[in-house]
Amino acid sequence: MPGSYDEMWEKLNLDLDAHTGLLEVLGKFYGDIYMSQQGRLRGMEYLDFVVSEIHGLRIKELQNAKASGQKIIGTFCVFVPEEIVLAAGGIQVGLCAGAEIGSEAAEKVLPRNTCALIKSFVGFKLSRLCPFIESCDLIVGETTCDGKKKAYEIFSEYSPVYVMEIPQMKNACDRELWKSEVLRFKRVVENVTGNSITADSLRDAVRLVNQRRRVLQRLNRLRAAAPAPISGRDALLINQISFYDDPVRFTAKITDLCDELEDRVKSGIGIAPEGTTRLMLSGCPMAVPNWKLPYIIESSGAIVVGEESCIGTRNTRDLVEEGGQTIDGLIDALVDRYMKIDCACFTPNSERLDNIVNMARDLQVKGVIHYALSFCQPYSMEAYKVEKALSAAGIPMLAIETDYSMEDVEQLKTRVEAFVEMTR
Ligand code: BJ8
Q1: Residues with Cβ < 8 Å from 386, sequence gap 6 or more?
Q2: What is the DSSP string of 56-111?
Q3: DSSP secondary structure letter of residue 141
Q4: Is the shortest distance between the CB of 233 and ligand 1 below 6 Å?
């Protein structure tokens, strides 16, 4: 990593030796998975730079913002409305939770059969490895799956945690509950930041977050082109970085990248040869640096052209209606938009099935790989319904359960290769 940030990391109370080890592994992993690709877009240089400074420059920016009085709010779920945080002058960062390092420490306080994502964020905290977590003035949890819900109780012994209640169904009374939770969150954020949210500041925040969603929607639309103009790995990385980069800068950079992509599409240039098997991923979110499965797929004669997940279309598909003139009108618009999230924690969750089938058709995929983290009950159980819906639409699906370890790479590769062969 360019520059030296040791002093900053020390102030954040990181375990410097373990942290150096983490950055070394990350750098090597990134080099193997990302820098080995041929014909990448010029615009990806910005993303490479962001990753090379993953715990450096962005953390420095956050520290500078804190010094000037801004508050940092960390989240683990796309249900937490960033618009509220931005409207109160705060900065929201999505915390990663995609690495195996730290799991051993996590298993001291969590059962072993906990999903890797939960072990990752608890492990990061206990092992003092994540400068993002250590920069947060408040970490917002949510009552989605049971694992996360209970893990936040333990996490709160180490960091300031606030938990939002997320409904489990989508009836009128659930919307009421969610609206009261958004209002409760607004009061908490106003307290933490010391700033009152106004109709103007909320409208500006809605527009800003919508702009970022729009550029990611554009990226998704461009990926429908054949041959595929960008690798699944690169597109996943863009979505991952959208959670913690400055939203204005990120939107501008990805707009440029999409312009470049559009030129490629017009000229019929692809990142993989025409005829490469097009696949879509669906399921659990893949947080940085969880690039294992896309890499396996793209080294098995296929290309990933879409991700139906929270680090993908679930986070970008729906916009907040911008027309509201009052705080109440804008809050209602926020509530309605967030109620459309089709997380497997909801029951029933039939709109997710429709969304997956529509997306698979729009992207003209030959098959879908359903990805569930081991011990994730909501997504592994819902895989059954997803497969039925896809099968009715004539689209084959492969269900994969895995974690962050590298032990099953060969076995996964064999299964993915067989699936790719079968879709041909
Ligand atoms: S809205 S998907 S970000 S909850 S993988 S921790 S569900 S056991 S991540 Fe999620 Fe919000 Fe839903 Fe999206 Fe639990 Fe499953 Fe682990 Fe998961």
Answers
A1: 282, 352, 353, 356, 368, 370, 397
A2: THHHHHHHHHHHTT--EEEESSTTS-HHHHHHTT-EEEE-----STTHHHHTTTS-
A3: E
A4: no
Q: Indicate the residue type of 70.
A: Q
User: 91 - beta bridge partners?
Assistant: 72
Ligand 1, atom 1, lies closest to the CA of 343
Residue 120 in contact with residue 404, Cβ under 8 Å?
A: yes
Q: What is the spatial distance between Cα 299 and Cα 109, in angstroms, rounded to a whole number?
A: 37
Write down the pTM of the prediction: 0.97
Sequence length of the chain is 424
Q: Is the pLDDT of residue 424 over 90?
A: no
Angle between the 350-362 and 377-392 helix axes, to the nearest 10 degrees? 50
* Residues 98-155: tens digit of each pLDDT: 999 999 999 999 999 999 999 999 999 999 999 999 999 999 999 999 999 999 999 9
Cα Rg of the chain, angstroms: 21
- 270 backbone dihedrals φ, ψ, rounded to 5°: -115, 160
pLDDT at 279 over 50: yes
Residue owning tokens 């905290």? 125
- Which amino acid makes up residue 112? R
Q: Check if 78 has its Cβ closer than 6 Å to any atom of ligand 1.
A: yes
326 CA → ligand 1 middle, Å? 32
